[in-house]
Amino acid sequence: MAVAVETVIEAWTHILWVLLDKPLPNAQLASHGEQQQIPDRPPYPQEIQQLPDGMLVTINCFHHRRGRPLVLLGESGQTSVFSAAWRLPVGPRWLAQAGIKDTVSRRTIGVMKLNFRGLRALVTGAGRGIGRGTAKALHASGAKVVAVTLNNEDLVSLTKECPGIEPVCVDLGDWEATEKALGGIGPVDLLVNNAAVALVQPFLEATKEAFDRSFHVNVRSVLQVSQMVAKGMIDRGVAGSIVNVSSMVAYVTFPGLANYCSTKGAMTMLTKAMAMELGPHKIRVNSVNPTVVLTDMGKKVTEDAEFAKKLKERHPLRKFAEVEDVVNSILFLLSDSSASTSGSGILVDAGYLAS
Description:
Elements: H1 2-19, E1 27-31, E2 34-37, E3 48-50, E4 56-59, E5 62-63, E6 72-75, E7 81-83, H2 92-97, E8 120-124, H3 129-140, E9 144-149, H4 152-161, E10 166-169, H5 175-182, E11 190-193, H6 208-236, E12 240-245, H7 258-278, E13 283-290, H8 296-301, H9 305-314, H10 323-334, E14 345-348
Parallel strand pairs: 8-9, 8-11, 9-10, 11-12, 12-13, 13-14
Antiparallel strand pairs: 1-2, 1-5, 3-4, 4-6, 6-7
């Protein structure tokens, strides 16, 4: 009973300190299991760390109260700092007194940094655009990367830029060639199905050849490559993550893209079907659905300057997506940070569907 009363009194003491925006007295700094007495008044020592996922900045300002530490965590991209013990917001005055600058919590724009060491990733369509950006980000995060694409020149430049990436040159629209090239690819923990073609044709002029090519590359190859990789994951008894790069045109359509939009709509349901059947094997499957990204493929959609202007104005953020925006979503879905996410799609559409 006495312990419970002390705990309640201690909690209200913390609340009072926060409401008054006062520095916490009798503070201690704990680092790597060691404690060190520090002054009751600012400036307080602080330790700013980059965690393994590369995204969190931790400000270790521990309050000593009968050996029970109070840690304040600052997340990059946010300006809020919370007490892990009581989940109380800490006022800006206290931060200023503690010598913690507001800029500590602001994230610079760039590719998300996560730790994929010890994992092997396969990325299709890795020669350019989103696929290339994903392959480079995974390589930088410690993964062993297998880069698959049709153009050998793109693979050569990628391997020069990122030594250690394993290149595979194959036309994923060819079932037999794909089986030969990837049938013995070995263990894969992470798969990104990014390869796609966008053959622009008005609906009334769409040809059998364009339709078949679109579905063979954009949908059938996803089925084929995912089957190979998933069977390997199941045989090894490991959890895995698969990300299909779809598009917001799975939900809305643009002129001249009847074939492409159809393939992305099919990918949405294929992603859900894969997630349902592979889930019991601890394999997660998700998609990212970006708006126009100004890659070589995206530029085909925006060749008409007037159409591109009107399209951008339809986006509440008045912008198209950057390659890094899509790559960051892919990395999130591949990582354990999304461990309970499967069968879902992340819209990277600058708010387009909300308009």
